[in-house]
Amino acid sequence: MVSADSPSRHRPRGHVLLAPGRFKGSLTAAQVARHLAAGLRRARPDVPVVELPVADGGEGTAEAAIAAGWRRVRVRVCGPTGRPVTAALALDGDTAVVELAEASGVHRLPGGEPRPLTATSFGTGQLLAHAVRLGARRIVLGLGGGAATDGGAGLVQGMGGRLLDALGKDLPPGGAALRSLHALDLRGLPDLSGVRVVVAGDGAGPLLGRTGAAAAAGAHRGAGREEVRALDAGLRRWADLAEAASRRPARDRAGAGAAGGVGFAALTFLGATVEPGTPFMLDLLGVAGRARGARLVVTGEGSLDTASLRGRAPIGVARAAARAGAPVVAVTGRRGLTGEQLRRTRIQAVYALTDIERDTGRCMRQAGPLLEQLTVAIAAEWLPPLPPEKGPGQVT
């Protein structure tokens, strides 16, 4: 354990708020919260525990909203390779959270095999259309973990639009097929007047070029050099026709290249705005309110390092907890921050799985039980038993 500050032995009575992010490759944020809760309830069964897993607009965004009390709505949609999958969106009143990865994520690829040229965001469009049918007037679209590099063309198709070749036939799925795009038929799109769409995520680059969606596909979605060129050519053709049809030039806007270009379709056809993912989602989930009166806030993610400082969810949680006057500690798979860096984040101590298990492979495989072991040290250092409250007339 590395500490930036010493824990006080005189914390007020209150709950423990568990607001972790995911441990990538091991546990979802909700699973991290459940393991922490199980360990703390064994160590200190008298302390109330509130589970509030968090996300920054990427993978786990819909699940985080559901864990916060939103209604889960399951929808049968098209996965990134055309196979049907059951995806979930979250609904609270007239606000819906739709997550790209739920329908069109890498984890939906059969056998995890990349399909850079043919993977589609079609299912995400189906989720969006379903949210509109349910009466959503505000839709939060989380972009992260997507398998497709189709510029959101599949999303438009999934919502009811048609992409046609020179013979008037529907294009097959995927970004490479966009090179043959000849015309758009948007008459089947739902009426989005009065619907506000917010993309929750940090601004990615533009749609095209060396820092665009196709280039990112080479790095993250298994595309080779020639495949990247084919994808970029398809996305350029898509941008030309999409902007002409919508009269919303968006290819060079920040966020257009997000998630294989799905950000471009959101900006162009949904009139979306882009909000910084972490503060927007933490506000949506009500983290600040649930941190008020907390005896301790526990956050964390799989690797807490300098990359975390660039606006990831645990840093946002720590700052929200500090504003609420609650101490905050973090759990992580491995630690990569110095004491001085911790002080700047407002995290007061970090507990790493590698503190109790040197084998990093086992840390990945057994992250849940190891997190429960970490709670023993957290409880001992931050949740010491408080003296009983004095009754009326009791003399000290």
UniProtKB/TrEMBL annotation:
GO terms for biological process: organic acid phosphorylation. It comes from the Bacteria. Keywords: Kinase, Transferase. SUPFAM superfamilies: Glycerate kinase I. The keyword Ubl conjugation does not apply. Signal peptide: none annotated. Its EC number is 2.7.1.31. GO terms for molecular function: glycerate kinase activity. It is an enzyme of class 2 (transferase). Belongs to the glycerate kinase type-1 family. PANTHER family: GLYCERATE KINASE. This is Glycerate 3-kinase. It comes from Actinomadura macrotermitis.
